[in-house]
Write a sequence for this structure.
């Protein structure tokens, strides 16, 4: 489908800022782009604009993203959320995650099936089958009891977990910690990788939505707002709430300059 002028402007702003952004991840009809010449840059901008339109379109497979945001100030979501993960069966005889030694936190998701069930790196288990979990040893014991019970009765195993960066459909900022320094065992790189997968549209920016730290970040947020795209943003310069975020994003994008826009887990520009 054709792209409107605003979509084209967003694509030019975020998809063609130089050789550092020479790649646009393929999605549906978009073809991989590997060079950064003038003609190739125009094609890349067209693909980027088409991708943005797909995420806006009510009839698209991924859309709609949410109701258009019409406010004037940058909102902020809570830092944590609680949710339930139900496992109707084991994955190769296991839960499918690793636990940080001495903690209740998930250090690694081992299988795609576990990821699809809802497990994320950094999740903190607070209940197993309705029973509160106080510490690492209690978690290990509870999981073993749950696995034994499942093998006997085929009953689903239910986990209640505590997670940073909650999912919701509103526009706003996400913080990776409480603002008193980094309080995660999980590396910031893994947290941000999960963040861009869990939210449909993510802007990794300099500064906040209320006070952008650069003209490019301000322009990117403005263009998304003008197109009615609901998105989450992360201030990569906030070393209190998001320490190490800038370095993590640089590693993810091969040192491309901020801001970075992710749609459906794909780097757009």
């Amino acid at each position: 489908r054709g792209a409107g002028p605003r979509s084209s402007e967003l694509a030019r702003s975020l998809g063609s800022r130089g050789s550092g952004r020479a790649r646009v991840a393929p999605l549906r009809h978009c073809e991989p782009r590997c060079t950064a010449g003038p003609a190739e840059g125009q094609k890349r901008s067209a693909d980027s604009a088409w991708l943005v339109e797909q995420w806006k379109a009510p009839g698209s497979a991924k859309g709609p993203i949410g109701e258009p945001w019409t406010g004037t100030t940058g909102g902020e979501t809570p830092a944590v959320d609680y949710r339930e993960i139900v496992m109707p069966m084991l994955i190769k005889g296991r839960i499918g995650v690793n636990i940080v030694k001495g903690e209740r936190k998930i250090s690694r998701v081992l299988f795609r099936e576990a990821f699809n069930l809802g497990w994320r790196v950094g999740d903190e288990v607070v209940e197993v089958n309705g029973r509160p979990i106080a510490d690492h040893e209690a978690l290990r014991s509870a999981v073993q009891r749950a696995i034994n019970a499942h093998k006997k009765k085929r009953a689903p195993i239910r986990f209640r977990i505590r997670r940073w960066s909650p999912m919701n459909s509103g526009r706003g900022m996400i913080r990776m910690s409480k603002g008193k320094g980094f309080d995660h065992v999980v590396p910031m790189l893994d947290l941000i990788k999960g963040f861009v997968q869990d939210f449909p549209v993510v802007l990794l920016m300099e500064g906040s939505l209320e006070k952008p730290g650069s003209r490019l970040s301000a322009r990117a947020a403005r263009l998304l707002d003008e197109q009615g795209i609901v998105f989450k943003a992360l201030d990569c310069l906030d070393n209190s709430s998001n320490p190490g975020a800038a370095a993590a994003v640089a590693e993810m994008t091969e040192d491309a300059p901020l801001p970075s826009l992710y749609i459906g887990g794909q780097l757009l520009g």
The chain has seven helices and eleven strands.
